[in-house]
Amino acid sequence: MRHMLFTILATVAPVTGFAEQDPRVAHIVQDHILPRFETLADASDTLANSARAECTATSDALRAAYFDAFDAWVSASHLRFGPTEIENRAFALAFWPDSRGATPKGLRQIISARDPVAMSASDYQEVSIAARGFYALEYLLFDEGIRALGDETYRCTLTQTITADIAAMSHAIEDDWRTDYAAQLLSPSGDGHYRSDDEALQELLKALSAGLQFTGDTRIGRPLGSFTKPRPKRAEAWRSGRSARHVALSLQSLNELSRMLAGTDEGLSRKLGEEFTRASTQLTGLNDPVFASITEPRGRLRLEVVQQSVGRIRTLVREALGPALGVAAGFNSMDGD
Amino acid sequence: MTRPFLSTTALLLAFSSPAFAIDKSAVVDNYADIAAAAYGDSLITAKALQAAIKTLTETPSAENLQAAKAAWISARVPYQQTEVFRFGNAIVDDWEGKVNAWPLDEGLIDYVDASYGGPSDENAFAGLNVIANPSFTLSGAQIDAKTITPELLSETLQEADGVEANVATGYHAIEFLLWGQDLNGHGDGAGNRPWTDFASGDSCTNDNCDRRAEYLTAATDLLVSDLEWMAQQWSDGGAARTDLLADADAGLSAMLTGMGSLSYGEQAGERMRLGLMLNDPEEEHDCFSDNTHNSHYFDGLGVQNVYLGEYVRVDGTLVAGPSLSDMVAANDADLDAEMKSKLSTTMMALGRIKTAAEAGFAYDQMLERGNKAGEALVMGGVNGLIDQTRSIERVVTALNLDGIDFEGSDSLDDPNAVFQ
């Protein structure tokens, strides 16, 4: 009897194992995830090449390449699972927020000591994540204190090494997606990382909701501070004038992902689109690249309105999109305090 | 040949007998019992700490400082096992900053080494040193700190100027006053405050010994009264218990939210992986006492306690009852086995960190740049915690709790609620 039972199971299992794949996952992998990491790898190459050609902090070409690569990262920054989490890649590409000033502190130590670790990108993988990636590079290119520290030759080498490190990590992420992780997400199996389409969809829903949370609570919430004490200097990348741009870019990416997750549910897709458009329009209307106006009640209120709109999207995702997909919101890295 | 018969019987029972279903509210009730016991134990051990500190301040000596430190270490054992109650129970999350806020800019409280620096862009009061300053200006107001009272600490100094790193109360403020700064970096040794920092008259070192003792006493009194309040909330008729039992599904959701949020975002991320990636010896949870290995271990144990529905009290008594594990096993025995196995793997990894630390390889040494063995130990814990979170998510799905909001502490205070 037992033998027969196993035979029956063996016949049935492949049918359920290769059940028709959810088309939304494939669409998202092909048209949302892979293009973003390809753009990041390409833009990071251009950045590293530009730093090799001209490494002074004020170089227009270097700054333009930095902006393009940083744009590419922000547009992919919600995709925090799988290849971005190997070897601390995403943490090292984008260590922010930095409430204890670890980035300037780390850079000062390295520059003051003329630490030989900056001579090669592979050695540089050993240093604190706070001294790596796009946010450390922002200090090297835009912070007056860091730009005046130590000698120019060393800072030049450090700039080249950090950009090469960024390029190496960006390529590693893209390679892992193409050679391994896309297949894992597309072909769930009992002993794989994802056991079912539901688990794959849950991962993508988590990326969406964590991305919204980060943009609402951190990118916008951190500078807002409290009513009596707004903190514009806590805005993301204010030194390079990019704070509002990061909110806008992340909303664009999250809008696309949410619509792809909504799939054929046109009503929900339209509703999501409307909410994202509302938030983006409000942000554009603010016309304040580094949220400097939040020290005045009027400016503050207008940024709060953007934050509320992001909150409405989060509610819609939680209460409508999650149930439509039939998966729970799960846990994300911001669940702590 | 009785085996096939037994499995057949078991199958029939599983399909036909609703009596096997586990009562959800009994599971939630047992969880509240465990919380009550763990907060009760935290209170008992905090009172022992209070007594040891009274002895130290009345009769300062090296032995009495050592006894107070030992009492602090013991007090952390039950408290860390309560951290799993924090996420998912708003009443705990709103309160816990008073007792366990971290990290802190300790220069707010007492003297620090020159290498600490002073006020920073983030915190203008990072170097305030209230023990040395009976009067100072804070956000435009003149503050009278001639007498250091629990009210001064909780109402004025805690989160002064809206900065979270201004931690004036709780375990870590007390820890700093007992141990002092750990100036050994990645080297051997914890903070090494001389007992004479509490001595009277000419024996007093680093000045203001009486005010230092006053601060330590006030902070400990506050810890005891805060824990008294929380233990009350979990006793019969207490608000935390009543809220939880009002809706069994929401109660189960709170249990799993606590397990997942503590495992992943808080412990694996903020407390363990971040410190490793920053190679910063101050990025350890109990940085003055070098007790971080225990903090991590007992945090992990708290998560396992909630799943298994068991807790060993500080007097050795076992509190146990119907559990999440029982519920999951009734639905999906494989998933229950998976969950238990992942929790065990994590405890083994956290146990390795604890073992190495107790043998002399301190947690801050593990965080040093290029220290491969330390990195492997810490990452073992991180990977275990991340991996068990995936199984916790599967448990949520298996118990059909999908519809419930499943986020962490941030979402407990829904920012949108303010505007509605």
Give a quick rundown of the structure:
The complex is a heterodimer of chains A (337) and B (420). Chain A is an all-alpha fold and 337 residues long. Chain A has 13 helices and no strands.
What this model shows, in words?
Chain A has 337 residues and is mainly α. Chain A has helices at 2-17, 23-53, 60-76, 89-93, 102-112, 121-124, 133-142, 144-147, 152-186, 197-224, 243-262, 266-286, 297-325. Chain A has two domains: 21-186, M75 peptidase, HXXE motif (A middle domain of Talin 1, Up-down Bundle), CATH 1.20.1420; 197-325, Four Helix Bundle (Hemerythrin (Met), subunit A). In chain A, helix 7 (133-142) runs antiparallel to helix 9 and helix 10 runs antiparallel to helix 11 (243-262). Chain B is built from 16 helices and four strands. In chain B, helix 2 (24-58) packs antiparallel against helix 8 (209-234), helix 2 (24-58) packs antiparallel against helix 9 (239-246) and helix 10 (248-278) packs antiparallel against helix 15. The termini of chain B are far apart. Chain B is globular and about 70 Å long. In chain B, the strands form two sheets. Chain B has a two-stranded antiparallel sheet with strand order 1-2. Chain B has a two-stranded antiparallel ribbon with strand order 3-4. Chain B has one domain: A middle domain of Talin 1 (Up-down Bundle), CATH 1.20.1420. Chain B is mainly alpha-helical and 420 residues long. Chains A and B meet through helix 10 and helix 13 of A and helix 10, helix 15 and helix 16 of B. Chain B: It comes from Litoreibacter albidus. Chain B: Residues 35-391 form the Imelysin-like domain. Chain B: It is found in: Cell envelope. Chain B: Residues 1-21 form the signal peptide.
Strand order across the biggest sheet of chain B? 1-2
User: Roughly how many Å is the radius of gyration of chain A?
Assistant: 22 Å
The number of domains of chain A = 2
Based on secondary structure, the structural category of chain A is mainly alpha
Mean pLDDT reading of chain A: 92
Oligomer: heterodimer
Largest sheet of chain B: 2 strands, antiparallel
CATH superfamily of the largest domain in chain A: M75 peptidase, HXXE motif
**CATH superfamily grouping of chain B:** M75 peptidase, HXXE motif
Q: What separation lies between the terminal Cα atoms of chain B?
A: 67 Å
Helicity range of the residues of chain B?
55-70%
- How is the CATH topology of chain B named? A middle domain of Talin 1
**How many separate domains of chain B?**
1
Please write the string of helix (H) and strand (E) elements of chain A. HHHHHHHHHHHHH
- State the name of the first-level CATH class of the largest domain in chain A: Mainly Alpha
Q: Can you summarize the main beta sheet of chain A?
A: none
How do the helices and strands follow one another from N- to C-terminus of chain B? HHHHHEEHHHHHHEEHHHHH
Mean pLDDT of chain B: 89
Helix content of chain A: 55-70%
* Topology, number of strands of chain B: 4
